[in-house]
Amino acid sequence: MGRVTNSLLQALSGNLGDVVFYQVGGKTYTRRRPGKQSKATKARTSKAKRRSQSVMSQTHAFLKNITHILRFGYQNHIDGASRPYHAAVSYTSKNSFKFEENAKILDISLVKVSRGTLLGPQDARAERIPGGVEFTWTDNSEQASSKPSDQVFVLLLSSAENGMEWEFLGSRRASGKHILPLHNPSSESQWHAWIAFSQENPWTKKRTLSDSVYLGII
Question: Beta 191-200 vs 97-100: how paired, if at all?
Answer without folding.
Answer: unpaired
